[in-house]
Amino acid sequence: MNNEELQSKKRAVELYDSGKINEFEVGTTAGLSQIHHFLFQDVFDFAGKIRNVDLVKEILHQ
Length: 62
Fold this sequence. Notes:
mainly alpha
C-alpha cells in the first residue's frame, strides 16, 4: 500500500469514528465533495473540487 492509499484510509477511519460523516449532506454532489475533500485533503490539491481532467491510476497485476 502506498502512502496516498494509507493516508486516505486513515482519514476514512477518522471520518467514521469521529462522527463527522453525519455532518455531511446526504445524497448530493455537495456531500460527495465534502467526503472527497476529507479523505484526500492530504493527497490532492483538488480534493473536494470537481475537476475537468481525467486521472487514471495504473493497476499492476502480479
